[in-house]
């Protein structure tokens, strides 16, 4: 084997068997949001009609009755003092998200949710409903046929409900009537908000932008914000700047953290979790109780004798896993997982062990319990 082939073989072997880099690079587009480029939440109150007897009970839901009367009066129908017994109307809350830079006349999807005691919104039609923003202004108007994914069927003695029949969606069900004024191209200062705040990541994003522009135009303001001064060549064309900047590759830095969900037994560990030298022992205590009652019969022809049930209880205690494992100093995440798995424990016991190691001060990571 020549020296060139031998060197190539060693390079391939080191690439395969040695651990890789600390992390993978991600686009700035996936790490941060641009200030001002955001959605806005809308909400409205309306009526769904055309239900097949599955609407609100008007005698029990006063706001549905009042809304129905007010709507009919606006249409020239006077029903004041009349008894309304229809079961085909339901009061609903309508929610939607107004996209960034949405223009007047475009359509957005909406979600319709029952507010009263309606059983199902299947087959219903939402009447004209204004959707308001946080400032109280109307930004969209919703109307259309409600489509639900659940259903309900019932008889005299049984019923079945699949999904949630009181929540539905209307695709392109709202028409935008008002735009949010925000001229991105006229901005001279921009701010990028990191989705996972971190000092190191913010510094790396600023450095990547400055290297691309060739001038100190970006600086980290805090762990979650990077400020950008729009360079002169990009004045009046900020979209071009953001298009080029958001494609830059940056390796994000993550703090050492262990996330535990005790309800489901899920454990997620970050790659930088390290453990000092510590010994861990885990034992499962199993207590078994068995009942074998016996029947005691009286002697034949005995007077006053009765049959009695005599309880017999057997209790056994067994302790398994009496092993002590040593976790060496500064082990990696893979070594830590392998060491815990070697004890033959499940996720529930592993949660208790990790919390005990943290209490002993031997684990360099934050533990977050969900």
Automatic annotation (TrEMBL):
GO molecular function terms noted in the UniProt entry: structural molecule activity
Family annotation (Pfam families): FlgI
Organism annotation: Pseudolabrys taiwanensis
GO terms under biological process: bacterial-type flagellum-dependent cell motility
DNA-binding among keywords: no
HAMAP family: FlgI
Lineage per the UniProt record: Bacteria, Pseudomonadati, Pseudomonadota, Alphaproteobacteria, Hyphomicrobiales
Record-stated family: Belongs to the FlgI family.
CC annotations in GO: bacterial-type flagellum basal body, distal rod, P ring; outer membrane-bounded periplasmic space
Keywords per UniProt: Bacterial flagellum, Cell projection, Cilium, Flagellum, Periplasm, Signal
Top-rank taxon: Bacteria
Main location: other
Subcellular location: Bacterial flagellum basal body
Extent of the signal sequence: 1-24
Subunit record text: The basal body constitutes a major portion of the flagellar organelle and consists of four rings (L,P,S, and M) mounted on a central rod.
Protein's name according to its UniProt entry: Flagellar P-ring protein
InterPro entries the UniProt entry points to: Flag_FlgI (IPR001782)
Gene name as annotated: flgI
Protein function: Assembles around the rod to form the L-ring and probably protects the motor/basal body from shearing forces during rotation.
UniProt KW DNA repair keyword: no
């Amino acid at each position: 084997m020549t020296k060139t082939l031998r060197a190539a073989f060693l390079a391939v072997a080191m690439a395969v068997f040695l651990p890789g880099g600390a992390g993978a690079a991600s686009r700035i587009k996936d790490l941060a949001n641009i200030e001002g480029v955001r959605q806005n939440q809308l909400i409205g109150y309306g009526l769904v009609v055309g239900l097949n007897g599955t609407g609100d009970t008007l005698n029990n839901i006063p706001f549905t009755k009042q809304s129905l009367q007010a709507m009919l009066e606006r249409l020239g129908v006077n029903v004041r003092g009349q008894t309304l017994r229809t079961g085909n109307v339901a009061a609903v809350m309508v929610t939607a998200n107004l996209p960034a830079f949405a223009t007047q006349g475009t359509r957005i999807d909406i979600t319709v949710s029952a507010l009263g005691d309606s059983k199902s919104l299947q087959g219903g039609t939402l009447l004209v409903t204004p959707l308001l923003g946080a400032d109280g202004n109307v930004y969209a108007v919703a109307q259309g046929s409600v489509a639900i994914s659940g259903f309900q069927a019932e008889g005299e003695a049984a019923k079945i409900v699949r999904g949630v029949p009181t929540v539905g969606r209307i695709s392109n069900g709202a028409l935008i009537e008002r735009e949010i004024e925000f001229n991105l191209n006229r901005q001279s200062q921009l701010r990028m908000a990191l989705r996972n705040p971190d000092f190191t990541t913010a510094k790396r994003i600023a450095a990547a932008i400055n290297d691309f522009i060739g001038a100190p135009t970006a600086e980290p303001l805090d762990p979650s914000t990077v400020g950008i001064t729009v360079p002169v060549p990009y004045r009046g064309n900020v979209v071009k700047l953001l298009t080029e900047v958001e494609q830059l590759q940056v390796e994000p830095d993550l703090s050492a953290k262990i996330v535990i969900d005790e309800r489901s037994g899920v454990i997620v560990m970050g790659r930088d979790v390290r453990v000092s030298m510590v010994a861990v022992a885990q034992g499962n205590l199993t207590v078994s109780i068995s009942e074998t009652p016996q029947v005691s019969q009286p002697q034949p022809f005995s007077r006053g004798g009765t049959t009695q049930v005599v309880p017999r209880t057997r209790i056994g205690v067994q302790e398994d896993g009496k092993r002590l494992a040593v976790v060496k100093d500064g082990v990696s995440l893979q070594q830590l997982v392998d060491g815990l798995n070697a004890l033959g424990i499940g996720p529930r016991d592993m949660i208790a062990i990790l919390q005990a190691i943290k209490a002993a001060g031997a684990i360099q990571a934050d533990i977050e319990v969900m």
